[in-house]
Specification:
The complex is a heterodimer of chains A (about 600) and B (about 325).
Chain A lengths: L1 H21 L9 E3 L3 E2 H17 L3 E3 L2 E3 L3 H29 L1 H5 L7 H7 L5 H24 L2 H19 L4 H7 L17 H33 L8 H48 L8 H14 L3 E2 L16 H23 L4 H20 L4 H4 L5 E2 L14 H24 L1 H11 L1 H6 L4 H27 L1 E2 L6 H14 L4 H17 L7 H15 L8 H22 L7 H6 L3
Antiparallel strand pairs in A: 1-2, 3-4, 5-6, 6-7
Helix pairs in contact in A: 1-2, 1-3, 2-3, 2-6, 3-6, 7-9, 8-10, 10-15, 10-18, 10-19, 10-20, 11-12, 11-13, 11-18, 12-18, 15-16, 15-18, 16-18, 19-20, 19-21
Chain B lengths: L1 H9 L9 H32 L6 H22 L1 H4 L1 H28 L8 H22 L4 E2 L9 E4 L2 E4 H23 L1 H11 L1 H6 L4 H27 L1 E2 L5 H14 L4 H23 L11 H15 L14
The chains are: A mainly alpha (about 600), B mainly alpha (about 325).
Chain lengths: ~600, ~325
């Protein structure tokens, strides 16, 4: 028994060691989330044993039966798992102390004296190690108790903890908003430690728990009554979702006014990436074509807008006028840019789209990389400025009202995002959208049904490309100058990451994905170095644990659920010794 | 292209043309680099052959080996062992590189890919991209973003003449080691029991498991073999370029993948051939095809060449040079 729990705890301890080695503990001992006790470093140390406790307390499945643990058993399991995690980490700390941290530091840069002190709570090494084990056991215990608590307690507590941590993280954003609204903020955020005050934390937790409690209590009732009204006429959008959507939209509209220009700057970038995400979502989410070279369209949009609207070269020693130069207005140039992008989407897509999924991904990756190499190469200096890039890009003014200012730019970008989102939403519901879905789910069957897969693939590529180029054009307007450094392969991966995080095929998912993956790192400047680490981890975790994403596309998640149900039925039938029904016939009906 | 070649060859030395010696150097350099690509390419190819999955993070497996070995090489350089007894020092350094690469590869398989064994095809690929990004940045977190200078034993400095061609000693080492490795691999896969089970799993996983082959074990072994080759390649690469950095796996990784596809993915001979072709193309292609057009600093377009080849091969001959050219398998 205990061995199983220890086997859960030890990997968690290794995770803690990993976090320490990449510098997420030692470098953040003075980034406080709550008061001057709960720092980010402390959170990083508590989290792995806590999760170990959660896992250790989970019901055991034996012979297809879920064996729920009783509270006492769960608590012991969780505490042991937590202690094992703590012991693993403590062992590493003792070992590091024995070898000498300065010798380890010659290899692992982050084994700093600060880390060593924090990891032993400033105590003598052995005492500190015991303290780490005790605290970890406690964290594991909490995790375990939370896991077996009834849902009516577990949900509000979880929501409260997450909300409090989120408020703690957003310590640079929320106080500014409060200032702008001239509300009192000192009770909520400590002016000395920047994190939440304890009173503030308690208030936030209480409010969040209350909202969660009420929404489960009355939400189900509300949902039930709506379902009765709606009858069986398909799943209407639930009122909770509608309300959440309306609130989110309202927040998006007032955000720059509330948050001031520094944060609006970040939000502007979020909107550019949301636009890219909506474009890539058509290619990846709707049509199921993995495109790893989306930066191609991003660069194409940015540079062609620059050329069409008369930007100048940044290069040294050659005339500033590019080899091709127009003097169009932004709003005249935009349709041309999109047509160019769509046309090159067709041109590039035509030969490569007959390739199978993973080969297509690599070809597009290659194309994206070629663009990266070309815009930075000395060869194309007379056209796009080479490594030093271009400057003097239009600010998209309407009658002298420019959009370079972060707050104004945000609204320009939001307008385009809205337009793109609407187009993409209507497309998904159209004949074209259904053809894409059919193609994505089963290309051969779609072909047999008379869908011209090549045509629809090309269409997805062209439309996705056009929207991507729009993102590029807006990006050029936003920063006013272009350098090849902005057009690296990481852009493609970032956009793919946000589409996946939000849920492939889901537009609200794309917006949330952009906020989380682009917005959060932009706001949390301290974590800048770690954003891509978190990115990679998030992509892997989503793929392994929740492939449908945070806010899944309704149809897609329904398909996934149906499949699971069918499999459950099948398994049950097998167990009861009946002839199992055909899985294919059970699921086939919905696709 | 033909005109470009013609024009380049017509150029006089004074106009920026190249001497015969320069071309010879390009070819040797390309072959040496190609040998390294070939060894990385085998890692992609073996895994693809068995799992039908592109292990996008293989470039990072290579990078991990290079980093792991760097700290030992650096310590030996400081203690003087590297110059006093280069064979032993390099053997230990290579063993460390292999250990780190194998560890990274096997861990990757266990944590990220195994849970997705039966997922739709694109899911593992996306996971691999995430894993690649994660590994790169984990190493950046461990060791910082700066490049480290990789020490080279004095024995390997300078060049010697082989069959009348001057070859840098490092390049000779690279070529010899690579050829030996590939011969050993070929022998391993074609004659040993494990090699036979690898081929069986590559042909049909389900049937292989019915025949009593432990598929999970075979897959882990495949990742481990890829790791061994990547580790050796990492040491050779580091000795050639005398530098390690957390981003060093990406471009060689793509070049190696291109090589694997070019040769016909899943075949050992194909990966070897593809590696040499890509290496030569990178070294000889830009000056030969582009200089004649008066394009400045042609070597900056080297990577674009690789990608162009990747695109052209996948579009016109997805089966690769040695492949059967079979149509897509669904």
């Amino acid at each position: 028994m205990a061995r199983r729990w220890i086997r859960i705890g030890v990997p968690a301890g290794i995770v803690t060691i990993f976090l320490a080695l990449v510098g997420l503990i030692g470098g953040f001992t003075d980034v406080y989330l709550i008061g001057d006790q709960i720092s980010f470093a402390a959170l990083m140390m508590i989290l792995p044993p806590f999760v170990a406790g959660l896992v250790a307390a989970a019901p055991r499945v034996e012979g297809g039966e879920r064996l729920e643990k009783r509270i006492l058993e769960a608590a012991v399991a969780a505490a042991i798992a937590g202690a094992a995690a703590g012991a693993t980490f403590a062992l590493a700390v003792v070992l590091a102390d024995w070898i000498g941290d300065e010798r380890i530091r010659a290899v692992f840069l982050n084994v700093t004296p600060q880390l060593m002190e924090f990891a032993t709570f400033g105590l003598a090494t052995m005492v500190g190690a015991l303290a780490v084990i005790a605290v970890s056991a406690l964290a594991g215990l909490l995790g375990g108790v939370l896991r077996v608590a009834p849902a009516s307690i577990r949900r509000p507590v979880t929501v409260a903890v997450i909300a409090t941590l989120l408020f703690g993280f957003l310590q640079r954003v929320i106080p500014i908003a409060l200032d702008q609204l001239s509300l009192e903020r000192d009770w909520l955020y400590s002016s000395q430690f920047h994190g939440l005050t304890w009173i503030g934390a308690i208030v936030v937790a209480a409010v969040a728990a209350g909202i969660s409690f009420l929404s489960t209590r009355f939400g189900t009732r509300l949902r039930g009554s709506v379902a009765r009204i709606g009858g069986s006429g398909g799943p209407a959008i639930s009122p909770v979702r509608l309300l959440a959507g309306a609130i989110a939209l309202g927040l998006l509209l007032v955000a720059p006014v509330l948050l001031g220009s520094v944060i609006s700057e970040v939000l502007g970038t979020v909107m550019v990436f949301a636009l890219l995400g909506i474009g890539l979502n058509i290619v990846v989410g709707y049509a199921g074509l993995l495109d790893l070279g989306y930066v191609f369209f991003f660069a194409l949009g940015a540079y062609s807008l620059a050329l069409l609207t008369g930007a100048t070269l940044n290069a040294f020693g050659i005339p500033p006028e590019p080899a091709i130069s127009g003097s169009l207005n932004f709003y005249v140039a935009i349709p041309i840019v999109m047509v160019i992008a769509a046309a090159s989407g067709l041109l590039v897509g035509a030969p490569v789209l007959r390739l199978r999924g993973d080969y297509l991904a690599l070809v597009t990756l290659g194309l994206g990389e070629m663009v990266t190499v070309l815009v930075g190469s000395p060869w194309l200096v007379p056209l796009v400025g080479g490594p030093s890039g271009m400057r003097g890009i239009t600010d998209a003014a309407i009658g002298g009202f420019g959009f370079r200012d972060p707050q104004r730019f945000y609204y320009l970008a939001l307008a385009f995002v809205g337009l793109a989102a609407f187009t993409s939403w209507r497309l998904a519901a159209s004949r074209i959208g259904r053809a894409w879905t059919a193609m994505r789910e089963d290309e051969q069957t779609a072909d047999a049904m008379g869908i011209s897969t090549t045509r629809f693939k090309l269409l997805a590529f062209a439309i996705g490309g056009a929207i991507g180029s729009l993102g590029g054009a807006l990006f050029a307007v936003k920063i006013g100058s272009l350098t090849p450094a902005s057009f690296q392969v990481i852009v493609s991966i970032q956009v793919l990451g946000l589409v996946i995080l939000g849920g492939m095929g889901s537009i609200p998912g794309v917006i949330v994905g952009a906020l989380v993956l682009v917005g959060l790192p932009g706001l949390l400047r301290e974590f800048e170095e770690y954003r891509f680490l978190a990115y990679g981890a998030a992509v892997v975790a989503i793929m392994v644990l929740r492939p449908q994403g945070l806010i899944p596309n309704v149809r897609r998640s329904r398909e996934l659920q149906d499949e699971e149900q069918a499999q459950d039925e099948w398994a049950k039938a097998v167990e009861e010794g009946e002839t199992p029904p055909d899985i294919a016939s059970a699921t086939g009906a919905t696709t | 292209m033909v005109t470009g070649t013609w024009r380049t060859l017509a150029l006089d030395r004074t106009e920026g043309g190249y001497s015969v010696g320069a071309w010879r150097d390009f070819i040797v350099q390309g072959a040496a680099q190609g040998a390294i690509f070939a060894m990385i390419a085998l890692g992609y190819s073996l895994v693809y052959g068995i799992l039908r999955m592109i292990n996008f993070a293989h470039g990072e497996v290579f990078m991990a080996g290079a980093f792991g070995s760097f700290f030992f090489a650096d310590a030996y350089a400081k203690s003087g062992l590297l110059n006093r007894n280069p064979v032993i020092a390099l053997a230990i350094v290579t063993a460390v590189a292999i250990g780190v690469s194998v560890g990274t590869g096997v861990l990757l398989e266990r944590l990220a890919y195994r849970p997705l064994r039966n997922a739709p095809r694109l899911v593992p690929l996306i996971t691999a991209i995430g894993a690649s990004l994660f590994l790169q940045n984990a190493f950046r977190g461990f060791f910082g973003p700066q490049p480290y200078g990789y020490p080279k034993p004095e024995v390997l400095a300078g060049s010697i003449t082989v069959l009348g061609v001057p070859v840098q000693k490092v390049q000779l080492l690279v070529l010899v080691v690579a050829v030996i490795c590939m011969a050993v691999l070929q022998w391993f896969v074609s004659t040993t029991t494990t090699g036979r089970s690898m081929r069986a799993v590559a042909q049909d996983r389900e049937i292989a498991s019915l025949m009593g082959i432990n598929v999970d074990r075979v897959i882990v072994i495949t990742f481990a073999i890829g790791g061994v080759l990547a580790g050796i390649a990492a040491v050779l690469f580091s000795l050639t370029f005398e530098q390690v950095q957390f981003t060093m796996g990406f471009r060689p990784g793509i070049a190696a993948f291109t090589a694997a596809v070019l040769g016909g993915i899943g075949s050992i001979g194909g990966a070897a051939l593809g590696g040499f072709v890509i290496g030569l193309l990178q070294a000889v292609g830009p000056p030969l095809l582009l200089t004649g057009f008066g394009i400045p600093s042609v070597f900056s377009l080297r990577d674009a060449f690789v990608f162009l080849v990747l695109v052209l091969v996948l579009v016109f001959r997805p089966g690769g040079l040695l492949g059967t050219g079979e149509a897509e398998k669904v």
